[in-house]
Write a structure and sequence with these properties.
The protein is of the alpha/beta class and 238 residues long. It has 8 helices and 13 strands. Helix 1 links the parallel strand 1 and strand 2. It is globular, with a radius of gyration of 18 Å. It starts with a strand and ends with a strand.
């Protein structure tokens, strides 16, 4: 049974207690906070395995908290929101959130998604480097680079790049990427892949401004493009 630590930041007491009870029942250690003001400092001192973070808190904005946490940690963050506006979702993901949970929700679904995210980031990977053109990814130490420059990636972005680099030139649908990256498929969440792709492209473009590495195949999905002179993927075992 797992005893991984989950931090719930939610000011609605009934929702927080419901999530706590279901996560406790699944074997997780849970800490609840109903205010956002001390969350960043708490995470610095007591880093959890995953954060369930409400967007609308009485004393702080969940988006701001997410932004601050991303300055020093890649802990998975699942935002909890009653907002259904697509702009809010995309803004949150651009700040580094891994996904959204929209109210009302099934607590069983939340537990399933928490387990899937933790299973994904804790999955044992081969001690190998993937090299595709200027990109290098080392799953063993969770490090990705463009040339000599380190890419500062969230867990979802890292997993997404790993999948694309493992199968260069293969076209993945959004649902396939969601399943491989997030570990689950739920209706309405495949658009999160679009934002993760956008963020990943932006970070790569900062190092390779003249080239487009990740291509959109309209009506289908995405692929990592390999130019004719690049051999890929190469694997170099330690």
């Amino acid at each position: 049974m797992t005893h991984e630590h989950i931090l719930i930041v939610e000011d609605e007491k009934k929702i927080a207690e419901l999530l706590r009870d279901y996560l406790n029942g699944a074997g997780f250690k849970v800490t609840c906070r109903d205010r956002g003001g001390q969350v960043v400092d708490y995470v610095r001192k007591n880093p959890p395995a995953l954060i369930l973070l409400d967007i609308m808190l009485p004393d702080a904005d969940g988006m701001d908290i997410c932004r601050e946490i991303r300055k020093f940690s890649n802990i998975p963050i699942l935002m909890i929101t009653a907002r259904v506006d697509e702009v809010d979702r995309l803004i949150g993901l651009e700040l580094g959130a891994d996904d959204y949970i929209c109210k009302p929700f099934s607590p069983r679904e939340v537990v399933a998604r928490v387990k899937a995210v933790l299973r994904r980031i804790g999955r044992t990977e081969p001690a190998a480097k993937l090299v595709v053109g200027d990109l290098t990814l080392d799953a063993a130490v969770h490090r990705a680079t463009v040339g000599e420059d380190l890419l500062d990636l969230t867990p979802s972005e890292f997993s997404l790049l790993r999948v694309l680099m493992t199968y260069p030139d293969r076209v993945f649908t959004r649902s396939e990427l969601l399943d491989k990256v997030q570990g689950y498929q739920f209706e309405g969440y495949d658009r999160t892949i679009d934002t993760h792709i956008k963020n990943l492209r932006k970070k790569i473009a900062e190092r390779l401004p003249e080239r487009e590495i990740i291509h959109t195949v309209y009506g289908v999905g995405y692929k990592l493009m390999v130019s004719a002179h690049e051999a890929a993927p190469q694997t170099a075992r330690k």
